[in-house]
Amino acid sequence: MRRVTIDPISRLEGHGKIEIFLNEQGNVENAYLQIPELRGFEQFVVGRHVEDMPIITQRICGVCPEAHHLAAVKALDGVFGVVPNSAATKLRELLYSAFFVADHTTHFYALGGPDFIVGPEAPPLERNILGVFHKVGLDVAKQVIACRQRNHNVIKMIGGRGLHPTGGLPGGWSKPLSQEDRVDIEKIAKENIEFALFSLKTFDDIVLKNPTYLSLVTSEIYYHETYYMGLVDANNCVNFYDGNVRIIAPDGSEFAKYEAKDYAQHIAEIVFSWSYLKFPYLKQIGWKGFVGGMDSGVYCATPLARLNCSDKMATPKAQEQFESMYQTFGCKKVNGKYQPIHFRLATHWARLIELLYAAERMLELATDPEIISPNVRVIPKEIVGEGIGCVEAPRGTLTHHYVTDKNGIVTKANLIVGTTNNYAPISMSIKKAAQKLIINGNVQEGLLNKVEMAFRLYDPCFSCATHNLPGKMPLEIDIHDAQGKVMQTLRRDL
Amino acid sequence: MKKIVVVGLGNPIISDDGVGIKVAQAISETLQDENIAVKEVYAGGLRLMDALVGFDHAIIIDAMLHVKGTPGTIKKFGVQDFAATRNIGSSHDMDLNSAIELGRISGLKMPQTLDIWGIEAFDILSFSENLTNQVSEAVPKVVSSILHDIKALTNDNVSLVRG
Questions:
Q1: A44 contact residues in B (CB cutoff 8 A)
Q2: Which candidate in A13, A468, A492, A494 is best for mutational testing of the B interface (most B CBs within 10 A)?
Q3: Is A138 at the interface with chain B, CB within 8 A?
């Protein structure tokens, strides 16, 4: 068996690699992604005050601290048996919407966008955010930076700090929003809507109107029929902050809808000796390997998954875009709901629709009279001892589960982070791209690019593992022969 | 007067990955100067760029890993030493050079000069608020070197906390 290794993220030997295994014929047998697993989280938090969890857990990741903060705070509501009032809930959601605007903007322009805007065949040194701005103009660069800044300001206004907010408390929020700040946020929300519409137009002009790119988006390489997961509100619309978890089958039917606290009845994890990863799958269907279809428990939790799980968007402009996307892909409506889109590169489009939804939702919340209510806390009076909090992180459903003793000291903690949900589908996408480009032992041009595109669309989060000071970032494919000897090395030094 | 920013970069709960944060905290306890800001940043790329806006000179401290490096080894780099960082290819953001360049072309004031201090880490995969021994021993040395640099940059015109 030959073995191909793509190593874009490794910090230590054996960690954070894409591995591709070839069979005797030189065709792809299997592929998976290894992500470095950080050790000892449970030992680290056991024995601490559970109230510290919203601050501690957001340190896990430099990219989405806000998601961990809110999932943790919601878990604390459960631990202390308290339900926050509607003003506090809206304040949390307002902060979270600003975070989604900033995060999705960054992904589109810095990560996903370069593949399309600069072009999938462009050299890697141009295929980055600077290349994007070279193509679309410096004015857009200023807008992207401004968008991030103004939304970080909103997070600071509501959350106390621009990074790593501190506002969340069991039962609500630590401080109300002033009328003065509310006025600023309303203005920012309107700017966000304009920016989201502009970004969608850019996507339309550059990707959808370009036949080459459109054929890439709808190509078989990036197609998988799997189950999808996402939080939905009472009307089955996408919601980032709250709702029930809805699972949609590959044929578009509703497979399950459950309260987040019941996750363990629906989700199981499988472990393999060759990987540090745990692969979550749908318990009631079972693990059938890295395959799609109705009989495989593999599911996906991404922006596209969330839209696939929803009947519609809760805001009008996002709803128009939602209609447009599903119609472009020729999806039929069955029982009032579009059939899912299985073309994974559509995730980039879905992300922009979510950006618009987040912006519109921000405006709704900022103009809600209750948002400046001085009453944003219900004081907890007891310790129930167990809580499960769930939000949609930008890269998938995020669940925090804590158990404490009678004094509120953590005895057990379990986290299913956004990217974890997608380990199996990411591996499947990498495998499919590799299968198309490695035939009878011949590794064709473009393997690196196509494989990169396959995992980038999931926006997998390695931030906590990749921000330390590095030297060069090689992207490497080692091709091993049947005896495991390296026959060929493809390498790109960035 | 030159405005200087000192940035500790890292994750404070992942063992040696937090060494940059520890150094920044020590410097912050020593300096008391309105022209020098000391910050903690938990992610590279654009979030790091945001922290550098408005300063003339930046000093960044982070953990580093070499294949055969000795834990606790201290190295000082310039921005030119990093053709690209890991963040660019697959992860979430972009490398430092691109982030600074992006800031510049967006019309933001970015530092003219930049020093990066790397401290060789031993453990960056375990949850812990403590550094491993050899890395911990490097902290006062880096702090002292950076303070020395700051004095040189400001012609010794810098306010320190007494004691």
A1: 13, 127-128
A2: A468
A3: yes
Q: Residue range B11-17: average pLDDT?
A: 88
Structural domains for chain B: 4-153 (3.40.50.1450)
pLDDT less than 70: residues of chain A: 1-17, 34-38, 61-63, 124-125, 274-277, 445, 461-494
Of the candidates B89, B94, B106, the beta carbon closest to that of A141 is on: B106
Q: What is the 3-state secondary structure (H, E, C) of chain A?
A: CEEEEECCCCCCCCCCCEEEEECCCCCEEEEEECCCCCECHHHHHCCCEHHHHHHHHHHHCCCCHHHHHHHHHHHHHHHCCCCCCHHHHHHHHHHHHHHHHHHHHHHHHHHHHHHHHHCCCCCCCCCCHHHHHHHHCHHHHHHHHHHHHHHHHHHHHHHCCCCCCCCEECCEECCCCCHHHHHHHHHHHHHHHHHHHHHHHHHHHHHHCCHHHHHHHCCHHHECCCEEEEEECCCCEECCCCCEEEEECCCCCEEEEECHHHHHHHEEEEECCCCCCEEEEECCCCCCCCCCCCCCCCEECCHHHHHHCCCECCCHHHHHHHHHHHHHCCCCEECCEECCCCEHHHHHHHHHHHHHHHHHHHHHHHCCHHHHCCCCECCCCCCCCEEEEEEEECCEEEEEEEEECCCCEEEEEEEECHHHHHHHHHHHHHHHHHHHHEECCEECCCHHHHHHHHHHCCCCCCHHHHCCECCCCEEEEEEECCCCCEEEEEEEEC
Nearest to B17 among A13, A130, A468 (CB): A468
Chain A nearest C-alpha distance from B110 (Å): 13
pLDDT of residue A485: 55
Average pLDDT estimate for B55-79 = 88
Residue A100 contacts B, CB cutoff 8 Å: no
Residue pLDDT, tens place only, A10-47: 333 334 467 778 888 888 887 777 665 667 787 889 99
User: Is a pLDDT exceeding 60 seen at residue B83?
Assistant: no
Does residue A238 or residue B118 have the better pLDDT? A238
Q: Do A62 and B47 touch (CB under 8 A)?
A: yes
pTM of the predicted protein model: 0.89
